[in-house]
Amino acid sequence: MAFSVQMPALGESVTEGTVTRWLKQEGDTVEIDEPLVEVSTDKVDTEIPSPAAGVLTKIVAKEDDTVEVGGELAIIGDAAESGGGDAPSQPEPEAEPAAAAQPEPEAEPEPQPEAKPQSGGSSAAGGDATPVLMPELGESVAEGTVTRWLKKVGDSVQVDEALVEVSTDKVDTEIPSPVAGVLLSITAEEDDVVQVGGELARIGSGSAAAAPPESKPAPAPEAAPETKAAPEPKAAPEPKPAPAATPQPAAAPAPSAGDGTPYVTPLVRKLAEENNIDLDSVTGTGVGDRIRKQDVLAAAEKKKERLEAKPAAAQASAPASPSKAAAPAAAAALAHLRGTKQKASRIRQITAIKTRESLQATAQLTQTHEVDMTRIVALRARAKGSFAEREGVNLTFLPFIARAVIDALKIHPNINASYNEETKEITYYDAEHLGFAVDTDQGLLSPVIHNAGDLSLAGLARAIADIAARARSGNLKPDELSGGTFTITNIGSQGALFDTPILVPPQAAMLGTGAIVKRPRVVVDDTGNESIGVRSVCYHPLTYDHRLVDGADAGRFLTTIKHRLEEGAFEADLGL
Asked: Locate the Lipoyl-binding domain: which residues (predicted)?
């Protein structure tokens, strides 16, 4: 029986995918759920598993082809069918499988229990078993890769105890247990790619955990492979590797790029590029010797140790002018691009698509106000020493701005809102979940501080420092990359005076904070006398969605922020 491999739905609003690489070739044997092909969308790069065991008889969509959701990618046929085509000189054995064709369909479903004897235990547990699902790990993230199980089948777990490590293109994190009990079965093995909402494992009560040992008699299906030996005429060598489970996964590296590069997931390949690691020199420790994220990180650490082992003289000179040395190195690294035409990286392609979609889906415009930050500058100078000693973090200007934004959002709820085009409804949020744009080695991330409105100025300073550090180190929690209701981007960190931020839908607005610079300004004293003075000023551009925010609304919101900052009444927050 032939099975059609189709392009699955890879996320909301995703209508098509592009074939980036075939991991199997026509004529190759594949197992159920074995990675078959890599596809790429505007949201995610992922692998499509085989829906059935058999032989890849035909590749319909070639590499770089774009296929609609539901479109056919390939055809999987039975091994017996493939064998008949390959060996026409053996009609007699063909007749025997034909006679055995009726037991064979029964034998085909039976290998499936082999693949999940543990889940049999969870079924024995009945309704007591609670599934552990892949959570949403950020906006536009549709899947995650299991990197390491922290618990084994049969282990007891507590509520919120770390259960498994997963990785996405944005974050590495631990998934906690949703309930207390016993880990009955592991559905997704290490290196498996699981869609958001897909099952990772099952947890049941202690009494239910006794079920798996009783279900162990289910190894009876292991006899099924021996009944499979009926079509032995074609697969005489296969029964030998079959007892050893390792040779079959070892076939996974076979679908290499054809240049000797072992197969790796897009995440691992990206990590290797960032650390300048040659994958040919890395020994994989995953299933079938697959190279995992941990292998690349270990290789990067060894490389770092080798560099640190250089003569002390080289070490001493390096810190003397790291930035000066880095500039020519960076320039040299990009010099080869002059006069060339390069294909955009996948990340750049996705960025191009998402920013354009944001502009097309919303009615964006930007309004800018100038803010006199002189009092905040003086206040920070007075408090930063004692603040750092007391709170353990540096006092930057961002917590002051964040506090002013929160106060303004409480007064202007139409800015802390979102518009649903389909239902024609506006949602006004009752809490301030602030996103902060953070520049990382992996690209721009916007982690979210939930319920930021409940934090003091010191609490905001600690939370901003913490979430920015974890964004750069890749240690964000799953819910910290989604759920924002308003975002602040510090465009002044690189000296920019103002910019026009692009919204993060469905948020209604985003505020940019320009560089604080000294400028001559007209100063009016309490009696109305005017004079020219040197003031510390910055620009605050607000990009907003005109579908639910009017220009006057944006102006009132910015004016509230401006007055709060120019008043500079934060002494009580700083203990002054």
From this structure: 2-77, 129-204
CA distance 564 to 576: 18
Q: Which of 550, 553, 563, 573 is catalytic?
A: 550
Query: Of the ranges 46-60, 257-271, 522-536, which one carries the lowest mean pLDDT score?
Result: 257-271
Tell me the C-alpha distance between 247 and 232, whole Å. 19
Task: Answer for the pair 447, 438: CB distance below 8 angstroms, yes or no.
Answer: yes
As a 3-state breakdown, the chain gives helix, strand, coil percent values, each rounded to 5, of 35, 25, 40
Rounded CA-CA distance 525/523 in Å is 7
- Give Cα separations from 568 to 239, 378, 397, 512, 536 (angstroms): 78, 9, 12, 19, 13
Tokens, residue 512:
């940019």
pLDDT confidence of 419, banded at 50, 70, 90? very high
pTM exceeds 0.70 for this model:
no
Residue matched to tokens 């520049």: 439
Average pLDDT over residues 224-228: 42
What span, in angstroms and rounded, lies between the C-alpha atoms of 39 and 45?
6
Give the torsion through C-alpha atoms of 143, 108, 29, 49, to 10 deg.
-10
Task: Retrieve residue 413's tokens.
Answer: 């709820």
CA 136, CA 133: separation in Å to the nearest integer? 10
CA distance 2 to 23: 19
Catalytic residue among 450, 546, 553, 563: 546
Tokens coding 372:
């006199």
Q: Which of these, 27, 28, 21, lies nearest to 73 by C-alpha position?
A: 21
Write down the H helix ranges in 430-508.
457-473
In the annotation, is 546 catalytic? yes
- Find residue 17's DSSP bridge partners: 67
Query: How many CA atoms within 13 Å lie on the side-chain side of 33?
Result: 11
Q: Is 369 a catalytic residue?
A: no
- Give yes or no for a contact between 208 and 125, defined as CB atoms under 8 angstroms apart: yes
